[in-house]
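Researcher: Final request for today, and then I'll write up notes for the group meeting. The sequence and the SMILES for NAP follow.
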Amino acid sequence: MKYIDIGGSGLRGSAVTLGCMRIDQLSEGEVAGLIGAATDAGITMFDHADIYGGGRCEEVFGAALARTTTRREDIVVQTKCGIRPGFFDFSADHLRASVEGSLRRLRTDYVDLLLLHRPDTLMEPDEVAAAFDELVTAGKVRHVGVSNQNPAQLELLRARVRQPLIANQLQFGLAHTALVDSGLNVNTGFEGGVVRDGGALEYCRLQGITIQPWSVLQHGHIAGTFLGNPDFRELNEELAALGAEYGATPAAVAVAWILRHPARMQPVVGTTKPARVAELARAADIELSRETWYALYRAAGNRLP
Ligand SMILES: NC(=O)c1ccc[n+]([C@@H]2O[C@H](COP(=O)([O-])OP(=O)(O)OC[C@H]3O[C@@H](n4cnc5c(N)ncnc54)[C@H](OP(=O)(O)O)[C@@H]3O)[C@@H](O)[C@H]2O)c1
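Model: Predicted protein-NAP complex:
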């Protein structure tokens, strides 16, 4: 496993992070097994949100961690807040209450990184700043960041928030390439030339903000995995061939494709299977060439101008 300095903050996280959005169906024992498989493979960072499984994901993780020999201080736990049933809420009261709930469910005194989950257009940046000040001063939150935000939204927050925003979680993977499409198709009439995120990739690179790609093996909006999906035949053939070459699974090659980008992104994988966690961690050992990176991009159905 490789490790990165997230957003240049000094917070060290594994290059591959384990997302916990789907663990609500697992027992405490199964989650303990998943945590063990992750840490054995060098994955020391875990992604949560207050809403995952209606709180059950954080709860079962907290209970399971207590059963393992893994010490809280040896892992990095991040969670997200700001999505409520039917609306988004970055009010100071909600941010405070959400963190209290997450800490209780996770059975911890602090989260290493707190992300604002999805932009709230009714946000008052000063309220976010006040809540962050309180939470960081109290030691309940060590670092802050965002998720699904474009550069202008980040700028708006950065004008008021006193802590550095160290991460931006965005959907990115071989079957969801919007982050790179617009940069590759600048000033063309092709579909890929449409800027959907305001240039988030280039902005985050310039500002040293770590991009954490989510749903890396999914197509559409978490519509299912492209692995083994007949709609992605060429991509699956390429991934299988490369997997055979590297002695890794096609899924690991798909994650290595993300790690190959010089933006030094930190993919969040969402499997609930210990064996798959170990396989995916292998992605950090695979170095794809420039030619292979582009070949996979094209095999996923993308065209270059
Ligand atoms: N910030 C945001 O807005 C946002 C949105 C969505 C997700 N996230 C984060 O991103 C994380 C990952 O999202 P995701 O779960 O959609 O990611 P993913 O890794 O793309 O998908 C995981 C799903 O694919 C399945 N899968 C099928 N074949 C697989 C294989 N060979 N290897 C691995 N998985 C395979 C898994 O099933 P098995 O469990 O059976 O392996 C699981 O259901 C979430 O846990 C969450 O932390 C963030």
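Model: Residues 92-106 form the longest helix (15 residues). The domain at 3-226+263-277 is CATH 3.20.20.100 (TIM Barrel).
Researcher: Thanks, that's everything.
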